[in-house]
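Hello,

Following up on my earlier ticket. Below are the three sequence lines again, exactly as submitted.
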Amino acid sequence: MGSNIKTDSASETLYGIAELAEAHGVSQRTIRFYEDKGLISPRRVGGQRVYTEHDSKRLSLILRAKSIGTKLSDIRTFLELYGREGEGRVRQLEFVIEKTAAEIEALEAKKRQIDQTLAELKLIHDGARERLGRRRG
DNA sequence: ATTCTTACA
DNA sequence: TGTAAGCA
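Thanks for your patience. The regenerated structure is below:
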């Protein structure tokens, strides 16, 4: 455990925004921003935000999703389905399948575009090099 | 000193 | 998201 500030009756480790931010390597602004987007809902004590271990793990999931290019709006949907049972699980998986499939398609399309451009550039490159070669010798 | 909100870059 | 401002 870290140097957390408070502990409730159930001995649950709690964090202040400063600790949470440092622990995850993000700014406090980022954490508040995600809250604004409905991704995290910390409880408040005298107006100040208090985060639980659960919130911390949730933030980890958010950062992971973001790192692979997931839009915050999709992360929110994913989180809303997360932790549910039965039907929720199914919808959770269906959502993941749908989104990953779309992302894969998008990336493959970009890859084709890049490959195409790459081929054109190589053609131009070789052509120029060829002409320069003839001019010299 | 720290956090919070709001607003602008 | 960073940064700044004005509070509590």
